[in-house]
Design a protein that fits this description.
584 residues, mainly alpha, two-stranded antiparallel sheet, 10 strands
């Protein structure tokens, strides 16, 4: 069948494929746009028309829900549209917009190419599995584990971690190969900061699970594990327009069943399980007689032939439990889920849990607010990490507790946060990182990015090279963008005058530039035999154990919640008026 003819036979299928390609390629490009090889004009076209591809992430279901709870205007519109489409046409989100669902379709299509004669038959639903996962998610959200459960169950976040943890290293490796063999000045080698083994295993394991389930049973993951698919499946049961059989046109050739990847077509009873149908329209295209099409829900019901009464099979625990769950109130599931998602913005790591964490390892991006709020709203999709121009944002492992696994934190050993950059907030789809104005033009109460204190530096004079080795340095003061660090005269033990750094904490915003620039290594006081006893501290030394010695002379520690810092405003020179202002 030619492409033109196939388009007229099944325009819905081609519409779905077109939108799915746009979202899949666009979101994948949003994660990989930092790779130079993806943006060279003579190689990839420079990505024209895809500069704002990260905005596609805001149309994902869980990010739109969390963004709505944080009053993000785009998220409110996206959530309203997604719910409206689901109530009208069923689970179109799962095949049109969800990148993890599209990835499953790609895997299943490859499986069909390898084994074309093997197809999936209709299978009876097992609702207690997916409803139990959805109910467990709602309960976890209510009791304060929203950030943890959504981190592992949100399909968009799973796809994001697959892209950053697994696809990003491959893209960097390919870029470096091209940079070594190419004469183009636009291609440069990139440094890759490998993630820890737990994060690598978690992302690879999730990818393996999704691929295995897709190759075995098509959309099995969507219809058993994914809570978004389960929730949208409940809404699809009351959709106004549904795919349905036309018994008068159907010849029971079985082509629709062979094309169905959700195993939801019951040809014997002329029924389609709307809760499992992902609206891929493969069955519509496969039917040459027009036996499957969208119909008004009452019309679809009238076309179903009367079914003979039969005794329900009662063998097996699943058969005994399924009718009970199927007859349970769906309103309870929807209500519990709504309450749980609403609690996602309020619940989380409370009390002393945040205080027990190492403040040097829990510095959050500007606009995160408090650690408790951030861990609840962030789903760890890695979009901000992939878009950070300095890569100071790195995925956490257990530095922020189990709820902070794979969520972004500042790693000042990698780089520091740019003073006039707020890219992380621009790409965050959930509102976990609030958008702030970049600079403050005057001293106002408004919080801006350059006046948000995410951390505060602590200066250890006994570790500074100026005080310890009687040498000139000043690297921290040169890199400080707020002038919180400055130098004062200091007479060393050699009798010469030096400049010793001094810190004004009120001006510090915790960007980490000073810590990253500090040349002090991690050597211990016991190794400094030539200096003699460490008696350089103005106060009593607090480092009684070797492990307590700071790695650098200046260390940045997180503040919780984030605060507003003081900013210096230099007065501009005023033009003189009149000749009397000039004494000459």
């Amino acid at each position: 069948m030619s492409i033109i003819k196939a388009f007229f036979v099944s325009p819905l299928k081609w519409l779905r494929v077109t939108v799915a390609v746009i979202f899949f390629v666009g979101i994948a490009y949003a994660f990989l746009r930092g790779i130079p090889a993806w943006n060279v004009p003579n190689m990839t076209g420079g990505g024209e028309g895809m500069e704002d591809s990260f905005a596609l992430a805001q149309w994902q279901f869980v990010p739109s829900v969390l963004g709505t709870l944080n009053w993000v205007g785009v998220s409110v519109a996206a959530l309203a549209l997604l719910l409206a489409l689901t109530l009208l046409f069923g689970r179109v989100y799962c095949s049109f917009l969800c990148p993890l669902g599209i990835l499953q379709d790609i895997v299943f299509r490859m499986r069909r190419w390898i084994r074309p004669k093997v197809f999936l038959k209709f299978s009876q639903p097992v609702p207690w599995v997916r409803y139990s996962i959805l109910a467990a998610l709602a309960v976890c959200c209510i009791i304060g584990f929203a950030g943890l459960t959504l981190n592992w169950l949100d399909p968009y976040s799973i796809f994001g971690r697959i892209m950053y943890v697994l696809a990003w290293p491959a893209a960097v490796w390919g870029n470096n190969l091209l940079a070594a063999d190419s004469a183009s000045a636009d291609l440069v080698r990139m440094d890759y900061y490998p993630v820890a083994l737990p994060a690598l295993l978690a992302s690879a394991g999730m990818l393996g699970l999704v691929v295995a389930m897709s190759a075995w049973r098509g959309r099995l993951y969507c219809n058993t594990v994914c809570p978004v698919g389960t929730l949208l499946g409940l809404l699809s049961r009351v959709s106004l327009f549904r795919l349905g059989f036309d018994p008068a046109s159907c010849k029971k050739c079985g082509k629709c069943i062979k094309s169905c990847k959700a195993q939801c077509l019951n040809l014997k009873e002329y029924r389609i399980d709307a809760s499992r149908c992902v609206a891929c329209y493969d069955c519509v295209r496969a039917c040459d007689e027009g036996g499957i099409r969208y119909r008004w829900f009452t019309r679809a019901r009238r076309l179903i032939p009367a079914k003979k009464e039969r005794k329900e099979a009662s063998s097996g625990p699943s058969a005994a439990f399924s009718p009970v769950v199927a007859k349970s109130s769906r309103r309870e599931f929807l209500g519990a889920t709504a309450v749980g998602l609403a609690g996602a913005a309020l619940s989380g790591c409370r009390g002393d849990a945040a205080q027990r964490l190492d403040p040097t390892q829990c510095v959050l991006p500007p606009g995160a607010g408090s650690l408790e709020r951030f861990l609840d709203v962030c789903t760890g999709c890695q979009m901000c990490i992939a878009s950070c121009p300095t890569h100071v944002l790195q995925p956490a492992y257990f530095q922020m507790g189990i709820k902070g696994f794979m969520k972004p934190r500042m790693d000042f050993s990698t780089k520091y946060c740019l003073y006039d950059c707020h890219r992380c907030a621009e790409v965050c789809p959930t509102g976990a990182i609030r958008k702030l104005p970049i600079t403050a033009e005057k001293d106002t109460t408004e919080i801006t990015k350059d006046t948000t204190r995410i951390a505060v530096a602590q200066f250890y004079v006994c570790r500074c090279l100026v005080r310890r080795e009687d040498m000139d340095c000043g690297a921290c003061t040169e890199h400080c963008p707020t002038k919180a660090l400055y130098t004062v005269p200091y007479i060393g033990r050699d009798g010469q005058e030096h400049r010793l750094p001094k810190l004004d904490p009120t001006l510090c915003i915790g960007c980490g530039a000073c810590e990253h620039a500090c040349p002090v290594t991690t050597e211990k006081p016991e190794e400094r035999v030539r200096v003699g006893p460490c008696n350089l501290c103005e106060e009593k030394c607090e480092f009684k154990k070797r492990e307590a010695v700071p790695p650098r002379a200046i260390v940045v520690r997180a503040v919780n919640p984030q605060q507003k810092a003081v900013k210096k405003f230099e007065e501009k020179a005023v033009d003189p008026v009149g000749d009397t202002d000039f004494p000459f």
